[in-house]
Amino acid sequence: MAFTYNFAVLASLLLLVSLVNPSTTTTTRKLPHLVKQPPLVLKYHNGALLKGNLTVNLVWYEKFSSIQRSILIDFLQSLNSHSTPPPSVSLWWKTTENYKEGSSNLLLGKQILDNSYSFGKSLKDSYILALATKADHKNAINVVFTAKDVAVAGFCMSRCGTHVSACGLDKRSKFAYVWVGNSESQCPGQCAWPFHQPIYGPQTPPLVSPNGDVGVDGMVINFATVLEATVTNSFDDG
Questions:
Q1: Residue at 42 is within a domain
Q2: Is 90 inside a domain boundary?
Q3: Which residues form the signal peptide (predicted)?
Q4: Is-contact 194 165, C-beta < 8 A?
Q5: CA-to-CA distance for 154 and 140, rounded, in angstroms?
Q6: Radius of gyration (Cα) for the chain, nearest Å?
Q7: Domain-located, residue 65
Q8: In a domain, 154, yes or no
Q9: pLDDT digits (tens, 9 = 90+) for 80-135
Q10: How many CA atoms lie less than 13 Å away from 70 in the CB half-sphere?
């Protein structure tokens, strides 16, 4: 399959990113130094974990081509694939099993296309939440992807994506949701590195974008980072 090599490259990058970026509620890119890293030790802080079979619903806000959507969907589905030799995305994802209570199996759920700028081209956090609640959130993680022409509060300045939680419709339970933006036309040097020249640090040539789309390949890494943070620190209490 065409994505096997691409995701092998991304798996190696994800491992590198995971060593230098601990799970946080807000995802920002930090450029690593090329030094030997200490062994990765996962410490459990007794917070809630999302384990078992989890549905991932996708909300596409504004224009994404079918190819762009397929890149992100194929990445999601590769997390639980066991047929790809290492380095693989699924092997990287298995590190989440080092926390208690077993594995987190992510299954593609409903997709919602919002191509009418229903909240305009500049989104506040409350608008992201409103988009996330369009899909069912029982045993689910809802993901909001915003297109390259959509500005989001804090995007590029302090974050490339976030994982957040909110009260469910019954007001008694919480659900987790994620936002990731396409930085291609806004801040690729911040949120699409290493596929674009970084905005600071050594100005080494960027890596070739595996799928020929700098913005979406950058989204894959940020999506992976906030997904990992979501299942291991679901409600920011761990």
A1: no
A2: yes
A3: 1-22
A4: no
A5: 25
A6: 17
A7: yes
A8: yes
A9: 877 777 778 888 888 767 666 667 788 999 999 999 999 999 999 999 999 999 99
A10: 7
The C-alpha torsion from 63 through 157 and 177 to 21, rounded to 10°, is 120
Which residue type occupies 41? Answer: V
Find the domain containing 116 and state its range.
3-30+47-232
Q: What is the pLDDT of residues 172-208, one digit of tens each?
A: 678 899 999 999 999 999 999 999 999 888 888 999 9
Cβ atoms of 65 and 149 closer than 8 Å: no
Residue keyed to tokens 């995701």? 7
Written as one letter, the residue type at 80 is: N
pTM value is 0.80
CB 141 within 8 A of CB 229: no
Amino acid at 60: W
* Cβ atoms 99, 154 nearer than 8 A: no
Number of structural domains the chain divides into: 1
Pick from 186, 114, 176: nearest CA to 150: 186
Question: Where are the strands (E) in 120-173, listed by range?
Answer: 122-123, 140-146, 151-152, 161-167
Tracing tokens 């762009």 back to the chain, one arrives at 68
